[in-house]
Specification:
268 residues, alpha/beta, 9 helices, 13% strand
Length: 268
C-alpha cells in the first residue's frame, strides 16, 4: 500500500509506539487522526508532530475519546469522516496490562482489560468495516503481543485478551477475503515504554530480556501495512517459540517452569 494521502485512525496515539507510528505515517504523506483520552497529551503530540514533520499541519487531527464508550467510538468515526472524507486504515494500538496473580486480580481490572484490549477494537472495527467495504479498500491493523501466542503466568488476563485479539484478526481476515479490506495482526515482544510498570521492568531486567525500541516496533508496524503482511511476530527467539508453542505447548510449559517461579517474586 502506498500510504501517501491515506486517511488513518490511530488509537492510543500518545503512547510511545503509537506516537512513532504517527510520525512515520505523516512522513509518508498520510493523514492521521490521533485518538486518546487525555486532551493535553494529544495536543502536545499534535504540536510535536506538526513541528517535526514538514507539511503535516493540515494532515493531523486530535480526537479526545475513550474507546471503551460507545458514544465516543461513534465520535471517533464521525470526526474522522468529517475531516478526511474517508478512512483507509484503522490501527488499534491502545492497550492495557496487568501483572499479578490472577486469583488476586480485581474483577473490575479484569473486565477493563477486555474492554480496552478486545471489545473496543472489535466494536470500532465493526463501525469502520462497512465504510471500507463500500469502497472495496481498507486495512485493519490490530497490534497484539507475543503474549497472544505464548500465555505467560502472572499476565493471565493480558495474555487472554491478546489471544482473543489474534483470533479476532484471523477470523475477520477470512471473513473479509475478496472484499478489498485487509487485516494485519502485529505481535511485538517487550518494548521499552512507560507501559511497563516498575515491577515488570525489574522482572525483565532480572531475566536479561531483550527489549525493543518503540521506533523500531513502529517501523515494523508501518512496514506491515505497506507490504500487506497478514501476521508479524517481532523478535528472535520469541517468534521461534511461538511456533514451538503452537505445536508442542508442553515443552514450553517445562521451559518456563523455573522462570514462572522466579517471576512471581516481582509481583507487587
Amino acid at each position: 500500500m502506498n500510504l501517501n494521502n491515506k486517511k488513518v485512525i490511530l488509537t492510543g496515539a500518545y503512547g510511545a509506539i503509537a506516537s512513532e507510528v504517527a510520525r512515520l505515517l505523516l512522513d509518508l504523506g498520510a493523514h492521521v487522526a490521533l485518538v486518546g483520552r487525555h486532551e493535553q497529551s494529544l495536543g502536545d503530540l499534535e504540536q510535536s508532530l506538526v513541528a517535526s514533520v514538514k507539511g503535516s499541519q493540515d494532515k493531523v487531527i486530535s480526537i479526545v475519546a475513550d474507546i471503551t464508550q460507545e458514544h465516543d467510538r461513534q465520535k471517533i468515526v464521525d470526526q474522522a469522516l468529517s475531516n478526511f472524507g474517508q478512512v483507509d486504515i484503522l490501527i488499534n494500538l491502545a492497550g492495557s496490562m496487568s501483572f499479578t496473580q490472577f486469583s488476586e486480580e480485581d474483577s473490575k481490572l479484569t473486565e477493563a482489560l477486555f474492554q480496552v484490549n478486545v471489545l473496543a477494537p472489535m466494536h470500532l472495527t465493526k463501525m469502520i468495516v462497512p465504510h471500507m467495504r463500500d469502497k472495496n479498500s481498507g486495512h485493519i491493523v490490530n497490534v497484539g503481543s507475543i503474549f497472544g501466542s505464548i500465555a505467560f503466568a502472572w499476565f493471565t488476563t493480558y495474555s487472554a485478551t491478546k489471544f482473543a485479539l489474534r483470533g479476532f484478526s484471523e477470523a475477520l481476515r477470512r471473513e473479509l477475503d475478496g472484499t478489498g479490506v485487509e487485516v494485519s495482526y502485529i505481535a511485538p515482544r517487550a518494548v521499552k515504554t512507560p507501559f511497563n510498570s516498575t515491577a515488570i521492568t525489574n522482572m525483565l531486567n532480572h531475566f536479561n530480556t531483550k527489549i525493543d525500541d518503540p521506533a523500531n516496533v513502529a517501523s515494523t508496524i508501518v512496514g506491515a501495512i505497506q507490504g500487506n503482511v497478514k501476521e508479524k511476530y517481532l523478535g528472535f527467539p520469541e517468534k521461534i517459540f511461538v511456533r514451538i508453542n503452537s505445536l508442542f505447548p508442553r515443552l514450553i510449559d517445562k521451559a518456563l517452569k523455573k522462570q514462572n517461579q522466579d517471576a512471581k517474586k516481582f509481583i507487587n
